[in-house]
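[Meeting: bench + compute handoff]

Bench side (C.D.) handed over the final construct sequence. Compute side (W.E.) agreed to return the predicted structure before the next meeting so the bench team could plan truncations. Sequence as handed over:
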Amino acid sequence: GKTMSSPSDLFPQTSYSEAETRALGKQFGARLAMGDVVALVGDLGAGKTQFVKGVAEAFGISPEDVSSPTFTIAHEYGGHIPLYHLDLYRLSGPAELQQSGVEEYFDMDGICLVEWPERAEHLLPERVQIIRLTHLQDGNRRIEQLSV
C-alpha cells in the first residue's frame, strides 16, 4: 500500500487563491479513506466549498459538479468512493437535526465532508478530522487541521 505521510506536513498553510484552496483540498483528499468524516469550519466565503471541490477532484469527480448543498442537507457525488457533502447551515435546532438524517451519512461507506459542523457537534463521530479555514486580512486564507 502507499505510505501515509503525517497530516501535519500539509497544514497549516496559507492559500492565496481559490485555485490554491482547491489544490490543497485535492492533496488532502488523496489521503482520505472510506469512512472518513471531515468537518470544515470557517465563515461564509472562507473557501470551504472550494476545498471540497479539491477533495472531489482527488476522487475523480469534476469540481464543476460540486456546489454547496445550501437547500438540501447533502449532495452525493459518486467517485470511486462515494463522497457525501453536507451543509448544516440551515438546521435550526436539535429537532431539525434529528429529522435531517445527518447521522446516517457518518455510517455510510463513503467519505463525509461537513460544512457548518457546529450545528451537529454532538453527533460527529470521534474520528472526525477538523479543517479550519480562516479569512486573513489581505483576502488570503489560512487553512489548518485541528485534529486527526
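W.E. noted at the follow-up: DSSP finds four helices and seven strands in the chain. C.D. will use this when planning the next construct.
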